[in-house]
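Researcher: Here's a chain I'd like modeled. Treat it as a single chain, no partners, no ligands.
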Amino acid sequence: MASLPALAVDQARSLSRAAQNKLGHALRDRVAGEDAPAAARRIWQTPGLRWFTEDDPIWIVNQDAAMFPGGITSLLLQSLHPGAMAGVAGHSGYKGDPWGRLQRTSTYLATVTFGTIEHAQEAIAHVRGIHERVRGKDHRGRPYRASDPHLLRWVHIAENWSFLTAHQNFSDRPLTPAQADTFVDQTRVSGELLGATDLPRTVAELEAQIEGYRPELEASPAAKDAAQFLLREPPLPLAAKPGYALLAAGGVALLPPWAREELGIPLPRLVRPLAHGAGRFGVAAVRWGMAGLDDDERLRHGDTH
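Model: Modeled as a single isolated chain. Structure tokens:
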């Protein structure tokens, strides 16, 4: 007969596994949607050639839990281009269906990174078709087109700078400098097919291009509204908000100081280490939760890494 201490340990382990599985399902359903298992099977189990392998830096970065705060960083940084933000505010419906938009973006990234070349090209063609219909004027009356290569370049570099920066700060497996350059180069595959031009090949070129866009950047009313929505009014149940706050704090901490200043997001120097620590803790919690799912329940193959 098992001793009382042994029974208590077994019960604690059972409760821990149940909590881990519950968190994993909640994360999966938010990020990938209820059809996540079907999406995972299509991405991972379809035979065919793929652009990348599990040893490639783009694979390592895009499968890691650090993508969660990196995604928040990316949205905030991208919003500083008035044309990009006007397109999102006017055509994406991000407030009316924020989780649907996140799920579509997550599935797209997983498909072009991990899926077959055929499926990746189909996904890119679908997004290009949407971009062709998205056009209008920004808050200053300047015309924009979502298919504009210059605008697509900004979205591309802001996104991948954010993902790489999050990975280097919050992952258990940061890339070497050479791997980081390779990551930047590998992101060009889908970026160029999407219509962006003159994309960077190295981290140095990536950072130089970010800097080169700064004269065009400003926090439009729509950008400040998006920051308010992301950071102070996230559409989450009360129980999920503390965990999201950790990831959001990490995402804000990664932003360049000039971007935080432009968006009006205060982060005093003494508080920055705390925000960074919150991000690391949040990423660890996400990684733990996703590890509680069965392999065929994950959208990303490596969510336990």
